[in-house]
Amino acid sequence: MEKSKENHFDLIYQVVRLIPEGKVTSYGAIASYLGLKSGARMVGYAMNASHTQMDIPAHRVVNRNGVLTGKHHFSQPEEMQQKLEAEGLQIEKDQIKDFNTHFWDPNELELDH
DNA sequence: GCAGTGACGTCTT
DNA sequence: GAAGACGCCACTG
Length: 113
Known about the structure:
Elements: H1 4-17, E1 25-26, H2 27-34, H3 40-49, E2 61-62, H4 77-86, E3 91-92, E4 95-96, H5 99-102, H6 107-110
Parallel strand pairs: 1-2
Antiparallel strand pairs: 3-4
Helix pairs in contact: 1-3, 2-3
The structure holds a DNA duplex.
């Protein structure tokens, strides 16, 4: 059979890749979209493995508070904030300003609402 | 196989 | 309102 564990990671990568520029989302939102109840931690773990996938804009994924929790895991921590600012976002003390305004939810993709 | 840890989130004190 | 503890699942040692 297949490597089911990779399946989980791949799903998370797909969602993160769909994040548009200037937008950010939270681990819980991705977990909810994938149906992971407490997957928030799992999502974060997958992001750690995302280092193998350079196509994963992990800098657009922050915690529920809009804080760059994983900035320290980047090749260069400051690069995460730099990229977010380059996309038109404002970072204040490792925290995204107007996070609610720039918040992007993957659930609205299929939800034609 | 057990114990510890982790890019989080929610509940309780 | 803030801080601490727990839960949940996956990976490493």
